[in-house]
Structures are given as structure tokens and as C-alpha cells.
Amino acid sequence: MCIEERTGRSLAYGEIFYHANRRRQTVAFTPQLRQMTEQAIVLAQLASQTTMPAPIDNTKKCLSCSLKEICLPFEVKQLRSSMTLETED
Ligand code: SF4
Asked: Which of 12, 54, 72, 89 has the fewest CB atoms within 10 Å of its CB?
């Protein structure tokens, strides 16, 4: 995808070369693989941040989220609103 962006040309496939057994594997660049790649890039960008992104505003979704014990969306929301109130005084 980087090569496509740099050259402006579309590529249908790529190849992975395994040095240990000196074999080459062809990989088709399907729409699904492209989408998975873009999702992995977004996750890598999030993981590289030193601070967690702010919880989403729609905390109804958080009720059924498996990460709510780590993300603490309700606590963060409460802290933010109290900090806003303090700065307004
Ligand atoms: S608890 Fe889940 S849905 Fe809510 S902000 Fe955190 S990660 Fe997103």
C-alpha cells in the first residue's frame, strides 16, 4: 500500500520471501486484506500513544464493552466534568 501511494500504481499482489527456507509466498491484496491492514495501522498508532484516547461520548456503548474496567469511561467523564467546573470558577 505504501508503494501504491508512492508510485500511484495499483498492485494486485505482493510476495513475502522467507529467508530460512528460501521460499517465496504470493499474497493477494484483497479488499479484506487492505481493510485489515488499515485497521492494524490504526491500532498500532493507538498503541504508540503515551496517553489513552478520551472515552467516547456515548457511554451507553461502554456498558457492554469488555474494556470498561480498564478504560473507566464513567470515572473519566466525571473527572473531566469536575475539572471543567473548577476552571470555570
Ligand atoms: S469503555 Fe469501551 S466503548 Fe467505552 S470508551 Fe472505553 S473502550 Fe470505548
From this structure: 89
